[in-house]
Amino acid sequence: MKRLRFVYRHFPLKAHPNAHKAAEAAEAAHAQARFWEMHALLFQNQLHLEANNLRHYAAELQLDMRKFETELDEGAYTPRVQADIESGLRSHIRSTPAFFVNGAVVDTSFGLERLMQAVARVAH
């Protein structure tokens, strides 16, 4: 049986001024086992990623607010997010989302059909 592994990496675009801090907020939520819940809130509220919004989402997820705010203020996850950005740049990523299957980028600019086909090819 072949296995599929999904790896998520941050690649906040410079065109979105609050995206980097939002990525850090997702990592702070990850430290409290709530990454995907925070990711969903950030994705649903892409136009509302200012610091007060990030605190609101953390509170909504019932995170330890002192820990969350301290980690964001101190930039605890800045190196992690920066490492993901650098990895993306080395892989020639220019936009998001970007998907790789067995090390090859899959173009999803016109929908997910090519991604599904690439996954199906390696799954069989």
Task: Describe this protein's structure.
With 124 residues, the chain is mostly helical. It folds into 2 domains: 9-92; 94-124, no CATH class. It contains 6 helices and 2 strands, in the order H-H-H-H-H-E-E-H. A two-stranded antiparallel sheet has the order 1-2. The model has no long low-confidence stretch (mean pLDDT 94).
Q: Kindly give the count of domains.
A: 2
Helix content: 40-55%
Give the integer mean of the pLDDT values. Answer: 94
- Give a quick account of the main beta sheet: strands, pairing sense, barrel closure: 2 strands, antiparallel
Query: Would you identify the regions where 5 or more consecutive residues have pLDDT less than 50?
Result: none
Measured between the Cα atoms of the first and last residue, the distance is 9 Å
Count of individual beta strands: 2
Q: Radius of gyration over alpha carbons? A: 16 Å
Strand order of the largest sheet: 1-2
Give, in order, the helices and strands. Answer: HHHHHEEH
**How large is the share of residues in beta strands?**
under 5%
Structural class: mainly alpha
Number of helices: 6
> Per the principal axes of the C-alpha atoms, what is the gross shape?
elongated
Keywords:
53% helix; elongated; 2 domains; 124 residues
In short:
The protein is mostly helical and 124 residues long.
